[in-house]
Automatic annotation (TrEMBL):
N-terminal signal peptide: none
InterPro entries per the UniProt record, alphabetical: Nuclease_put_TT1808, Restrct_endonuc-II-like, Uma2
Matching Gene3D superfamilies: tt1808, chain A
Domain Putative restriction endonuclease intervals: 17-78
Alphabetized GO MF terms: endonuclease activity
Keywords: Endonuclease, Hydrolase, Nuclease
CDD domains with a match to the protein in the record: DUF820-like
Organism: Nostoc edaphicum CCNP1411
Pfam families named among the record's database cross-references: Uma2
Annotated protein name in UniProt: Uma2 family endonuclease
Length: 108
């Protein structure tokens, strides 16, 4: 997924970011770790140059998405990495449709 999809071999478990580029998208699932995900981890991903960072807030059933640019971030309502995915629609449409769409994106 993204422009770096073929850079790292499938099945690689530990990624050395001194050798490989940072991921295009990072998704954190936050239940008890929300403060850490919005603080320390977000700053880490900004420093690494990840293109997009999502926090899935389990308790509020909310997706917070950020585009990372110039070692900072801003909230977004539509994914730039997964073109065509409006994040607000994730909660409004059938979850199996969202899952099927995501699978097609990962397989590209």
């Amino acid at each position: 997924m993204g422009e770096n999809v073929g850079v790292i071999s499938y099945g690689t478990s530990i990624i050395n970011l001194d050798i490989y580029p940072p991921p295009d998208l990072v998704i954190e699932v936050a239940n008890t770790s929300l403060a850490d995900d919005q603080g320390e981890k977000q700053l880490l991903y900004e420093d690494l140059g990840v293109k997009e960072y999502w926090i899935l807030n389990v308790q509020n059933v909310q997706v917070m998405a950020f585009a990372i640019e110039n070692q900072g971030s801003r909230r977004i309502t539509e994914s730039q990495v997964l073109a065509g995915l409006a994040l607000r629609q994730i909660r409004q449409i059938n979850q199996s449709q969202v899952g099927a769409w995501l699978l097609t994106q990962f397989q590209q």
